Queue: 4 jobs
Job 1
Amino acid sequence: MKQTIFTLLLATMAHVAVAQEKLILLNEGNWQSDNGRVSYFENGHVVSNQWFRDNNGYKLGDTPNDIIQVNDTLIAIAINWSNIVQFITPEGKAVAATEDVPNNRKLASDGRYVYISSYGHECGTVDGMKYFTKGYVAKIDVNTFKVVAATEVGYEPEGIAYYKGYLFVANTGGYAFQEDHEYETTVSILDAETMQLVRNVDTHQINLYGKMSQSGKYLCINSPGDYYDIQAATIVFDCEKALQGDEDCFVTLPYAATYNCTTMDGNFFAIGSRYSYYTGEYTFNYITIDPEEVMVSMGGPGVKETLPGTMLEDIKKMTMPYGIYVNPYTGYIYATDAGEFVSGGALYQWSPEGILLGKHGVYINPAHFLALPPDGNFTGIEETVPAKQDDAYIYDLTGRRVTYPQRGHIYIRYGKKYIINH
Amino acid sequence: MYNMRLRDYRRYKRQYIIAVTSLSWKTIICGVLACMCIVRVYAHDADTIALAARMDSVSGKPAETMRTLHVHASRPLATRQALSGKELQALSTTNIADALKYFAGVQIKDYGGLGGLKTVNVRSLGAQHVGIYIDGIRVTNAQNGTVDLGKFSLTTMETVELYNANKLDNCQSASEYASGATVYLRTRRPTNDSLSAQLRFASFGTYMAKANIQFARKGWRGFVDVEGLTSKGDYPFRYKSEFEDTIGRRANSDIKYARIEGALFKGGLSSHIYYYYSERGCPGGIVRRLSDKYTNVGREWDSDFFAQMSYSWQTGSHMFKVNTKYTHEYLRYCTDYPENQNTARVNNHYLQDDIYAAACYNWVPLRWLSLNASCDIRYSKLRADLRHFDNVHRLDQKQVLALQINHRGLQAAASVLHQHYKDYTRMHTGAADPLDKFTPAITLGYTYRRLSLRAWYKHIFRAPTLNDLYYTQAGNRNLKPEYTKQWNIGAEWHHASPHWNASIQADAYINKIENRIVCLPLKGTYTWSMMNYGYTYCRGLNATGNVRYNLHDWNFSLLTSLTWQRDVDRTNRESDLYDKPICYSPAISCGITGVVAWQRLSLTVSNLYVSERMWSYADPEDVLKPYSNVDVKLQYQHPVGKKAYLGACLEINDLLDEQYEHIPRYPMPGRNYKLTLSFSL
C-alpha cells in the first residue's frame, strides 16, 4: 500500500516538476488597434492569451515584431508600431522599456547586449541623438537599457543574427516601392564590439525581407522579390565564409522562405509563396533545407520539398500560415494560422516527427515564437549548432515528458507513437 | 511583419475600410454609426397642395418648393428620407455627414476630429455603393470611389435626401440609376436678394467665418458662398479599463479649409461652380507609447474644383435634359516628417480629371405612362507620382431604359441599365479587361388613401476603382465588380391637417453582396492585394415616424428613427465566422429628435443611440461599447430694423460627454460647444 502511494506520488511529481514545453508567442494584433498580445503555452495548453497584461496590469502595445531570450533572466520584445523595446523576465514581468529605437524590427543578442535593426532614421543613444539617412542597427546594454552605439547599414534593415562577435544584417530597402531609392541586395557585417561596418556582401537578390533563421554559421534569408518582375528567392548564407571574405559565401535557391525556422538537426524549414502582380498567380513551396549540403553543392541537392509527418498537409489546410518554429530544446514543431484576421489565430503543435498533437486558439496574427528552456537555464541555444540526437525520452501526445508511462496509453518515443501494452 | 509594408498605404487604406468589414486585417478598420431619421411628409395627391401651401406660409419658400414637392409627391414609390429647410437648420449639422446620420439605415464612418474622413454607408452596402448627387449630377472619385462628405456645406443646400436604390423621377440620367443607395443634395434656389455673414467659435480652437450673397431677379437666381475654417482639433480623450488609464489630447487632427462656390439658375437651367482647398492632419490610432515624441505624422492637402451645368426643357409630352460636368481633383499625401519614424517617407501627388456629359429623354405618351432613356459618358484620368505607376484613363458609358406606370393608385417602375467600362494605361500590369454589364431594377407600389405600399428589387454593381486595379503593390487588374442585390418591402402612412402632421414609414429589406472587393494579405508572401472575397447577407428593418404640431407661434416636432439589422458573413461555411454578424455592424441604432420653436426662438434636442458592435471575434472584449449621443441646439434670431436679423446659435454636442469610438483606438471628441453669430440683410 505504502509503496503504491509512493509510486503514485512520484509519478505525479515527475509529471508536474519540470514543464517540458514552454512557449511564448507574440500576437501582432491589428495595426493601430493597440492589441498586440503575448500568449503563453505550456505543456499542451495555452495558459493565457494576454500573458503580458496578466503579469503587468497593462497592455503590451501595438504590433510586437520580434522576441528573443537575452540571458537567464531577460527577454527582449521589439514592439514596432509602439516604438518600444520591452524587456521582461522569463516569468513575464516587465523590467524596462525604451523608445530610443523607433521603428524597430528584429533582435539579436550575445547575452550582454541586445542588437536591433531599425527602419527609422534617428536613435537616442548615450551620446545624444544620432541621425541616419538609411536604416541602422542599435546596440543596447542590458545593464542600463541604454543604446550605447548605433551604426548605419542599408535602407530598411530587417533580419539580424549574431555569430562569433559579428552581426549579420539583411537589408531590404523595402520602402523602395514608395521612396526614392532602390531595393537593397546586401547583407551588412558589423563588428559587434566596435559596431563598425566590416563589409557588405552583395547577394544580388533584392529585398532581403522577413524572418531570418540561424543554424550555427548558416543563415536562411528570404527575398520576396518585388512582386513584379523579380521572383522570390531563398538565400543560404555561410557566415564563416563571409567573414573570411569568400565570395561564394551564399547560395540562392528558387524558393520563397516567407516563414522559416531552424530545426533540431540544423536544417531549415521554409514555407512561402512566390507572387506576381502581373499574373496574379502564386507558387507555393514547403521545403526542408540542409544548409551544409546546399553550400557544398552550391545549390545542387540539399533542398527537399517535404516536411515531417503530416505537417505539409496540415499547413496546406491553413487559411493563412503566419509563422513556423521548432522548439530548440525539445524539437517540437509549431506553426500558426492567422485565419481570417477578425477571429483569433491558431497555434498548431507537432511532435518532432510531424505528428499533429493539437491546435490551440490564440489571438490575432500569431507570428513570433520563443521557447523557454525546460529547466529554466538559458544556454543561448539559438546560437549553437544543435547536435543531431536520438530522443530516448518518452513523451505524451501533448509533448510532456513522461517518466512513468501507463498501460494502454499512447506515447511517443524515438519520434514514433506507440501504446504501452505491458 | 506584413504591417510594415501596409503602413504606408495609409492613403490607400483609408479607401478600403468599409469594403473589408468582415475580413479585417491589420490595417483594416471600418466605421459605423447611428442613425435616426426625419422624413419630410410625403404629400400625395390632394394633400400635396394643402401641405405645400402650408409649408410656404411657414418657410416663405416659393412655388419652386411646391413644384419639387409635387414631383416627389406623385411618386412615393422609392424608399425616401429627406431633410429640408428649417428642419435641416434645426438639427445640429455642420456638414452633409452630420445630416445623414439622422436617417434610418445610415452608418457614418468617422475617424474622429474635424479633419477626419467622413463617409456614409447605407444598409451595410459599403461607402462605394452610395452615390452622392448634387442637383442630379454625381460626385465621383475614379481613384477610390468614395466621397468625403465633410467637403460639402449644408448652407448652400436646400434639401438632403436619401433614396435606397435610386430616385424614381421622370427624366433621369443613367448615372442616377447606377448606385445601390443614392444621396441627393439639392442646391438652394434663392428667392430674394440678401447678404449674410456668420462667425463661429467652437471648442478645440475652431474658428469659422462665412459669407453669402444671393439674388433673385427677372427669373435669374444665384448665390456666391464663401467659407473658411481653422481648427486645432486637439480634443481630450480618455481610455479607462482595468488594464489602462490613458488620458491624452488628439494630436495631428487639425484642419484648415476654404471653400467658395456659386450657383446660377433660370428656368430649366441650373449651374454650379465649386472650389475647395484643405490641409489636414491624419491622426493615427491611440497606441501604447512611452512619450509623445513620435506621432506618425501624415498630412493631406486637397484641392477640388468642379463646374457643372444642367439644362432641361419640355415640349408637349416630351422632356429633355442635358447634364455636363468637369472635375479636377488634386491630392497630396505626405509622411516625410521627423516625428514620423514609422513609415516610408512618402510625398505623393494625385491628379484626377473627369469630364462628364449626359443626355436624357422622357416621354409621357399616356397620362399613366412615362418612358425614360438616357445616355451618359464619362472620361476620367488619373495621374500620380507613385512608383510603378503610369497614367490611367477610364471611359465609362452608361445607358438606361426605364418606364413608370401610375394608374389609379397602382404604380410600377422598371429599368435596365447598361454599363461599359474601359481603361487605358501603359502600366506593365496592363489595363483591366473591359466591363460590360446589364443590371435591372423593378419597383411596385400601391396607394390607398393615406397608405402606400411598395416592394422593390435592385441588382447593381460597383466597378473596381482605379486604386483597386492599379495601385502600386496592391492593385489587381483581374478584379470582378462587386455585386449587390437588394429586396425591399415597405409601407408608409401619413396624415396632414391644418395643425397636425404625422407620418410613419417602415421598410424591411434583404441585401446580398457578392465578390466584395477587399484588400487582403497574400498567402505566404509579405504583401497584399485587392481581391474579390466575401459574401454578406443582410436583413434589416428601417422605420421612421414623425409628428408635428403647430399652433399660433408655436411649432413642435418629434422625429424618430429605428434601424434593426443583422448583417452576417456568408463567405465560407467552414469558417467560425460563418453566419456571424460582420464586424462594426450594430444590431440596433435609433434616434429621437425633439424641436420646440416659438417665433424666432428654437430648441432642438436629439439623441442617437448605437448598440454594441464587435470589431473582432478573437476575444469577447473586442467590442465597441454602445453609446448615446445627445446634442442640444438653441437658436434665436433678433430683428434689427426692417429687414435685417441678428442671430445667435449655441450648440452642445455630446452633452453627456460620452467617450465613444467608431473605430477602435480612434476616439471621438467628447462634449463640445459651438457658438455661431450671424447677421443677415
Job 2
Amino acid sequence: MTLFSLVKWDPRCKIILMACLSTLAMLRGEVWFLFGLLVFTCLLVMLGGAELSGALGQVKGLLGLIFSLFIIQCFFTRSGEPWLVIGGFTLITSGGIELACILSLRLFILAFSALLLLTGEVRDYLLALVQMKIPYEIAFMTMASVHFIPILREEALNVFYAIQLRGCELQKASWRKKLHTYLEICLPILVGALKRTRAMALAMEARAFRAYPKRTYLRRLVLKKNDKAILVAVPVITLVLLVY
Amino acid sequence: MMGINAAVEVRNLDFTYEEGPQILHRVSFSLPQGSLTAVIGLSGCGKSTLCHCLCGLIPQALGGELSGEILLQGHDISGRPLAQLAQTIGLVMQNPDLQLVTTTVEDELAFAPENLCLSPAEIARRIERVLAWLNFEHLRLASPHDLSGGQKRLLAIGAVLTLEPQILVLDEPMSHLDQQGQKLVKDALLALLKEGCTIIMVEHDWQIATFADNWLVMIDGRVSYFGPPADILQDKDFLLQHNLL
C-alpha cells in the first residue's frame, strides 16, 4: 500500500502525475477511455490518502458549471444521429451527447487530478517547483496566490454583508440591480487586493527578498527509489496511451 | 544630541511624496545604542514615513524626494541596497497578516535568511534561536494565520530578527491587541533591549509607550519633543494643545 499512499510520494511525482492525467484527459477523446481514466483518478485519490469528504466538497462547487456545459453541448451540437425530435426540430443528437459526456468527463478528471495535490503541504510543492528549475519568484507567487484566495473570498463576503447591512436586499433585487451591486463590490475588493499586494511586497523587500540572484533553502527534497520509478513510469505510460 | 556612539542619527531630513505635500520637515535626532525610543504622534503626522526612510524603503522602493542624512551605526545609508540595510535595521510593519507570506512558522522564519543565501546550517541555527526566544518550539509547523493576534505580531518580529539586525523598527506593534497580546509584545521588546538591540517603536497611543527610554513626539512632520517621557508628561498644556491627552 506504500506505493499508493500519496502522502509519502515526493511532491514532484504528484505534480508530474497530475500533469500526465490532465494531458491524457485533454488529448484523448473517447468516452470509454475518459471514463476509465476518471475511475482510475478517483481510485488514486481515495487510496492515496486524500480526505474524500474534503475532496468531494472541493469538486461540488464545479457540479453546476459541468451540468450547465453538459446541457449546452447537448442542445447546440448538431452531429450524429437525431435522438430527440420534437415537432420536426432535432433537439438532441448522438454527437451532442457524446461531446457533452467528453467535456464533462474531462472537467471531472482535471478536478480530481488536482485533488491529488491535497495529499501534500504547500511548502513542499514550492520546494518541488524550485527543484524542478522553476524560478523561485514564479513558484512563490503561484503558492502565494493559492494562499490568498481564501483571504480574498473572506474580504468579498465582508463587503457583500456590509452592503446588505446598509439596506440593500439582494434576494429581492432585479438581475440588473444585482449585476450593478456585484460590480460595486468588485471595486473595493480590487483596491484592497492592490493595497495588500503593495504592503506584502514592501514587507518582503524589508526581509531581503531578491537580495541576490539566487537564494539558499533550509530544506531539500530527496527522491527515493519509488519516487524515481514513478517519475520514469508515469510519463512513459502516458506517452504509450497517447500513441496507441 | 548628536552622539558618537549613536545607533541612529538623522540630520535635517525632509521628505515629499511624488506630487504630494511635504511629509517630513527638517527632522533631526540621535538615538543611543541599546535604547528604546517611542515615536509618538497623531495619525498622518509622518511616523510611518519616518520608519520607511530609516529602513531605506524610502526612496528606494516607495520613491519620493528625500533630502538630509540618515546614519545607522555611523554609516550613511544613501546608496546602500535594501538587502544590505535589512541586516542592520529590521522593520516590522503595522499589520502582521500582510507580512506573513509563507504557510508555516518555520518557513516564515527561514524566509529572510534564505534570501541572504546563508547555508542551511546557519539558517537552522537562526530559526532555532528565534523559536526558543519566542517560546514557539511547539508551533514550528503551525500555520501563521492560525495564530492569535499577539502570536502573529511576535512571529512578525521573530521573522525580522532572523536577519539579526542591530536596530529594530516597529510600526504600531501594540495596535489591535488585547492586554495579554500587548504584554507578550512588551516583554519581548524588553528582552530584546537587554540583548543590546536598539528599538524604535511607533505609537499613536502614548499610554502604551510609557516604558520607552525616550519619546520623539512628532507634530505635522516636525519633531516637537525628544527626551524622557517623564518630562513631557508633566507638560499637560503641550499634550492638550496637540490632542495627545
Job 3
Amino acid sequence: MELLAFGKTGWGDELFYATLMTIAVSITAMLVGFVFALIFTPLKLSKYKTLNLVGNFYTTVIRGVPELLVIYLFFFGGSGAIMYVASIFGYYEYIEINAFITGSMAIGIISGAYSTEVFRGAIQSIDKGQFEAAKVLGVNKFVQFYKIILPQMLRLAIPNLSNVWQITLKDTSLISVTGLVEIMRQSYIAAGSTRDPLFFYSFAAVLYLLLTYMSMKLINKLEVRYSRGY
Amino acid sequence: MITSFPKLLGATIVTLKLLSASLFFGLFLGLFFAILRLNKNIFINKLAYGYSYIFRGTPLLVQIFIIYFGLGQIEYLRTTFLWVILKEPYWCAIIAFTLNTGAYTSEILRSAFQTIKPGIIEAGKSLGISNKIIFYKIQIPIAIRQSLPAYGNEIILMMKGTSLASTVTLMDLTGVAKYIISTTFKPIEVFIVAGGIYLFMTFIIHNVIKYLEKKYSFQQ
C-alpha cells in the first residue's frame, strides 16, 4: 500500500495524474474521431461512387490495420509530414510534435473509423418517411439534419458509441509506446524503478476497469435520457 | 519498399502462428466459459461473468504485461515447470491472447446460445433425445452458426491484437515493421507494405467467414 502513497514516497499522485491523462487523451481522441466521422459518414452515404470509395477506403484501412501500426506511423512519420508541409511555407527548422497531439490524432483517426460505421448504421436505420416528411414540409437540408435526423440518430447510435468509447479508452494504452505518460507508461516507469511489475500492472488493470465501469454508468444515464418518449 | 517486403512477409508467419494458436485455445476457453455462464448456479455464473468482464474491460497490453513481466516476479512460479513456458515471450503472448479472445468468444457464444428458440430444444426433448445429445447435436451447431458473423469480427480484432506481441520483444509483422521504420526512417513506405499485408489477411478472413455463413445458412 505504501507504494501507492501520495507525495515523494509513493506512486499514488503520479498514477492519479496518469489516469487524468488517459481520460484526457480518450476524450480528445473521441472528439477527433467525431470530426472524422462527420466528414466520412456523408461520404459513405453519398450518391456518388467516388465519394463512397473514399469513405470505404478510410473505414476499411483503419479497421483492418493494427492500432499499433497506425500509432507507429504517426509517431515516426508525424513530425516528418509536418516538417514537409512547413518547408513548403519556407520553414526549415526541426519541428517536434507533442506526444499528446500525436497520440490523440492517431487514436482519434482509429476511433473515427468506428464512429463512422456507427453513424452510418444509425442514419440508415432511420425511417425513410422522416426524410420525405422533412422534404415535403420544405425544411432545408441543414435544419433537416440538425433538428430531425440527428436527435433520432443519437438515440440509435448511443449504445454502439459506448462500445467505440470503450475501444478508444483501451486503445489509449498503446500510446505508451510513444512515451506519453498515461496509466500504462506510468505503471511501466513505476514497475521499472520498484521492480514490482506484478503489482503495478495489476493496479493499472484495476484503474482501467474502474474507468470502463464508471463510463458505462454514465453512458447508461445518457441512453435513458435520449430514449425519452420511446 | 521492395527490400523490406520479404522481411515483413517472413514476420507474417509469426503473426499467423500467434493468431492461430490463440484462436484455437481461445475457442475452447470461450466455449467452456459460455457454458458456465448458462449455469443456473449463481456463484459459477458470476465467476464466468467476472472473467469476461475483467478481460474485456482492460486493455490487451496490460494483460500481456501482467503475464510477461508480472508473473515472472513470483518466486514460486520460477521453481515450477510453468516457468519453462512463462519465460518465453512467445508463450506469454499466446496465453494473454488466448485469455483475451476467450473472454470475447464466451460472450459471443453465450448470446448465441440464448437466442436459440426454446421450441427447438423442446422439439428435441419431445422426440426423446437425451439432454446431452440435444446439447451437442442441436444447440452447439445452431450456436456456432448464429455466432459466425460476430466471431468473424473477433478473429479480425484478434489479428490486430497480435501486433501487441511486438511490445514483449517478439518480432511479428508489427515488430519487424517498427524495426525497419526506426532503422530506415521511411515510415510511410513500411506502413503501406505492412498495412497491406494486414489488410490482405483481413480480406481473406472476411471472405472465408462470408463463405461459411452462406454454406451454413438456414435457408438452403
Job 4
Amino acid sequence: MIADIVLCLGGVLLILGAIFTLLAAIGVIRLPDLYTRMHAASKAGAVGGGLVLVAVALISMDVAVSVRALIGVLFLLLTTPVAAHLLARASYLAGYRADQSTVRDDLKTRLEQNSGS
Amino acid sequence: MNSAFLVIILALGWAGITGNFSGLNLLFGGLVGGVAILILRYSIHQQGALRKTAKILSLAALFFYELMASAIKVAVVVMHPNLKSALKPAIVAVPLTVKSDAEITLLANMITLTPGTLTVDIAEDRSVLYVHALAMDNDTALIADIDNGFEARIREVFK
C-alpha cells in the first residue's frame, strides 16, 4: 500500500521534473539575451533536475541510493547558482551587452565611472 | 557544533555517498572526516549551532518555497505568447548589509535561485551586489524584498 503511494508520488515528481527541464530548455531558446537565459537555465533547470533526483530517491526505496540522490540535489542547488553567476559575470566583463529591452543597467554606470577615473 | 559531532555527521555522509554502512566503511569515513576537520580547523569556529538550528531550518523552508515559486514564475514567462511584453530586464544595484564572505556567498546563491533575480557581480568594496532582474516593475520594491527576506534571515543565522 505505502509502496504504491510512494511509487505514484515518485512518478508525479518525475513528470514534474521533466516538464521543468523542458521549460528550461524552451526558455534558453526563446529568451533574448544571456542574462535572461541564465534565469531559465539556473532556476527551472535546477528545480527540474532536483525533482528528478528526489523522484529517484523515492522510487529506489534503498537508503543508500536515496541518500546519494538527496546529496545530489544539495550539490545541484549549491553549484547551479555559482555557474549562472560566473557565466553572467564573465560575459558582462567580456563586453556582451544586455538586450535592448533592458530598462536599467546600474553595472554599466559603475564600469564607466571606473574607466573614467 | 563540536568536532566529534561533526566527525560523526561526516562519517554518516561518507557512508551515504559510498552506499555502504558497514562498520569498516563508517570508520574510514570518520577518518577522512577527521583529517578534513584537522585541515579546516582554523576556518570552522561556530558556537551555539544548536540554538541556530531553528533559524537555519526556517531559512531553508523559505528558500525551498521561493525556489519553487521562482521555477514556476520562469516557466510562466517562458511560455508567455508575447515574450517581449512579459520581459522587463534590468540590472539593479542592491546595497549589501551583510559583510562576511560566507554571508555574501549564501545571499548571492539564494538571490540567484529566487523569483526573477540573478546575481551578476559584486562591487569591489563589497557594498553593493549587482542583481539582474527578469521583470522589474519597481526597483525600491525589489531591493526591499531582498533586504527583508533573505538578508534579514541570513543575518539572524550568522549573528
